[in-house]
Description:
Arc Repressor Mutant, subunit A; mainly alpha
Amino acid sequence: MPELVRSDIDVTDPSAVRAVLATGDIVDIVEMVDLMWYRLPGDYSVELLAALRRFSEDELLSRPRLAVAGMYAHQICFGESDATMQALLEKLVVLGSQYRAVLATTEDLYEVIASGAAAIIIPRLRGRLSESKEVGDFVASRIERMSSSGALGWGNESSRYRPGSVDVQRGLTATLMGDFRTAVRLYTRAYAQAGPPPFEHFAGANAASNLAMLAAIQGQHRLAAEWIKKSTSTADVPQPIEYLIGVGRLIATAMVAIDLLDQAAATKALQLVGAASTGIELWPFVASTHAAFHLAFGTPHRGLVLLEEAAFAHGHDLWSSTIADGILRRAHLDLLIAVGEGHRVVSALKDVPVPLRLRVPLATAYLSAGRYSRALRIAADGLRRMTLSGRDAADLRVISAVAQVALGRTDAARSSYQMLVESGVFDHRVDLIARLPQQDGERLIEALGIQSSSHVRLRFASAPVTLVELTGKESEVLSALARGHTPMQIAANTNTSLNTVRTHVKGIYRKLGASSRAEALAIAASQELITSCV
Length: 534
């Protein structure tokens, strides 16, 4: 049975709210959580925590929306790393299946919406994204069946329904899973469902903020600007909650500034965003934006250290990362190329299907190594994909133009470049040419007669890359040499003539620029062509 609630609590009166928190029972406080949403932990975090201490752990954990409100209040007062909050979160995770059982049987729409949003959040906070999605889909279907229209409007105390809250949480789960199209659809719906301040606008503000972030990350600058404006115009968010709701907008602002090479504006925005090593759920986007900053402004070594620090703080493997459509892995590979370790990028992506998001760093690695034909093939293949983001498409067109110039195909290069000019991308991406290797950037500018303008800033940040590519037989012989085998042993073990093995060894030495076995093995190890040597 749904809990009976009072109808005489004036949640717009701070003294009335504090009075209920000081003396009210748990039903009164659940009532205020339902009505006030983020404003209760945001404006009354100290008082809310004091009130919750009057109740047993079982009473709190049996009301997930109250427990989550307490978690937000605790985070505001003590930080996300506080041991008490971590213990509460662990218990919420354990009880998640019980919450889902309640959602399946209750006929209380308030409970389905408020506790449903909490049930979506809880597994996500522990990285269980598939579980979070399943819960979100279930909650959405329950809401659709229980509500007359399948979508909840606002007005007449509808803040209890937290308009847009379920969709914005489902959108965040889709965002972290890398399903950006679904995320955009859910955020857009959440924004449309949201109502006016002081209690019904939180999901709309959050949705607009995250839409701005996704648009900026994908290179949709006009849309990013529109959603930044909409997010900023949504007023009356409690200051302690403002960061939680608006960090997506800050990330978008930073990315827009980075693309314009506006270091001052980017620095200011990233100072507000904060470090990616904190407990914020959007930390992969925070980390990738910091990486983009250090790439654009010539400090990739620092960017690599910070990215690895963030990954370590979250127990995350950068090499195999797929979170948020591989955004962290992409940032990692971009930074490796910038510090001259593009051979590690090629090694990591060799002989495996290359995700669409990683076509740019792979093509860039070959471009930086002077392998223009290979870079052009990768760029051309990527540009044929219909799902390519605007950002990646612009990057691949520049790579294509550079490679075509180097291969003597000036007319084709001019066509690629002209498509970028006509699209207006240089109005927002003044970094495109600036990040090229110096020789390639200068050659492109000279060959195409590009005039000095706001979109050509000759920073030329990318470092040259040395790539060594061996044939299959050469790789086999090199691995045997690393295991301590002599050419004669290799010939016997592979049923190959000694002269053939010696020919392979000479080819290996030539490609590595080595004059001895020891030198060849040392260079091969540094190029990650072998995993160990003796």
